[in-house]
Design a protein that fits this description.
This protein is α/β, with parallel strands linked by helices. The chain has three domains: 1-54, no CATH class; 57-147 and 299-356, D-Maltodextrin-Binding Protein, domain 2; 150-294, D-Maltodextrin-Binding Protein, domain 2 (3-Layer(aba) Sandwich), CATH 3.40.190.10. The chain has 13 helices and twelve strands. It has helices spanning 21-27, 68-84, 98-104, 114-122, 165-170, 185-196, 201-206, 216-224, 240-248, 258-265, 306-317, 320-325, 348-356, and strands at residues 35-38, 42-45, 57-61, 87-91, 109-112, 140-157, 176-179, 210-213, 230-236, 251-253, 270-274, 289-301. The strands form two sheets. Strands 3, 4, 5, 6, 7, 8, 9, 10, 11 and 12 form a ten-stranded mixed beta sheet that branches. Strand 3, helix 2 (68-84) and strand 4 form a beta-alpha-beta unit. Helix 2 (68-84) crosses helix 11, helix 8 runs parallel beside helix 9 (240-248) and helix 11 (306-317) packs across helix 13.
């Protein structure tokens, strides 16, 4: 059990101990001890009290299976389990799906994105319509932010005539595009992209566009099988699904034009680059590609106990060598980044940790 974690996993009284039950409880009132040892390690319950406390169990809502969020959640929850004893179950989710799940308590913790979290907090788009109806999701609290900068990718088959995003959307050339399902951050941003080009799904479908909605794995498979001509997706670099797609079929990554980046910045998105060689099999692998980005936030429901949130922040920030090895996108993360770029208030337990370490004044 990691030092400082407040939840003991088991309590066992050993034969030959000189401490009385009363003395043990005085020493540490968190423990409930109601047993004596008979013979070699056999525990008899005398009062009916249980000499054991269950480990903390949480649910973490991540991203679609096959994506970076899902992979990272698995690695981070394993780190947390090994260092604290907490059990955390990872379930699929998405950038816009996760805030309502966490706010309602259907998940205890999960991934979030600053602009989307802020929109959820204020009851704004995409939460201003049914089923949310503008409800302000103010049960959301941040545990750690400023990590895993994720990058939007818009790629087309190298065998298609498209060289720019303006070509695709301004001229409305018929094309089949794979996007993530409704309820994900990818799809939310894709609708912002369409709005920048003064269009929407209905308008493009009239012009002959077809849209396939599926997971990252399904997007890659459909691209390789030539069921779609292009894909709009949101992954930490390097995106496993993009790598997979590039192995099965030559693809070209398209730059986000400056005007589009300026427009997306109004919603809290940043500007980043896909470095040369990120996808060696891409047709333009030797080119740097400019794109839109968002960082990731670990979010918790406000009702997660303060000491649990404290333990989560501590487990992540005091095991950085292992944490950074979980995914390449986590390598730049510093503990001082934890209380930054969250989009929502910090959980009091996490805030206590960052103040103790001097990252917050």
């Amino acid at each position: 059990m990691a030092e400082g974690f407040p939840y003991p996993i088991t309590v066992i009284a050993k034969s030959g101990t000189s401490e009385s039950e009363e003395g043990a409880m005085r020493r540490d009132q968190r423990w409930i001890v109601a047993g004596v040892v008979v013979g070699l390690g056999v525990v008899l319950t005398l009062s009916g009290a249980v000499a054991q406390q269950k480990p903390v169990s949480l649910t973490w809502t991540a991203g679609p299976v096959g994506g970076g969020w899902y992979q990272m959640a698995g690695g981070i929850t394993e780190l947390i389990r090994d260092t604290t004893g907490m059990n955390i179950k990872v379930v699929p989710g998405g950038g816009t799906q996760n805030p309502p799940l966490i706010d309602k308590g259907d998940a205890d913790v999960g991934w979030g994105l600053p602009p989307v979290l802020n929109a959820a907090w204020n009851g704004e788009d995409p939460y201003d319509k049914p089923p949310h109806g503008g409800k302000k999701m103010q049960n959301l609290r941040a545990v750690a932010g400023g990590m895993s900068i994720n990058t939007f990718h818009f790629y087309v088959g190298a065998d298609t005539p498209f060289k720019t995003m303006d070509e695709v959307f301004k001229q409305k050339k018929a094309i089949r595009i794979a996007v993530s399902p409704v309820g994900t951050s990818d799809e939310w941003v894709f609708r912002k992209v369409l709005a920048y080009y003064n269009t929407d799904y209905k308008d493009l479908e009239v012009a002959g566009f077809k849209f396939f909605r599926g997971s990252y794995t399904e997007q890659a498979a459909n691209f390789k099988d030539r069921n779609v001509d292009a894909t709009f997706t949101f992954l930490a670099l390097p995106g496993a699904a993009v790598t997979e797609a590039s192995i099965g079929r030559s693809l070209r990554l398209l730059n986000f034009p400056p005007g589009l980046l300026d427009y997306l910045a109004k919603f809290g998105l940043g500007t980043g680059k896909i470095p040369k060689g990120t996808y060696p099999k891409a047709a333009n692998a030797d080119e740097e590609v400019v794109s839109a980005t968002m960082g990731s936030v670990i979010v918790a429901n406000k009702n997660v106990p303060d000491d649990v949130a404290y333990a989560l922040a501590k487990a992540i920030n005091e095991n950085l060598e292992r944490f950074r090895k979980i995914h390449a996108s986590l390598q730049p993360y510093q503990a001082s980044d934890g209380p930054t770029a969250t989009g929502i208030p910090l959980h009091p337990g996490a805030e206590k940790y960052y103040r103790e370490k001097g990252y917050l004044k």
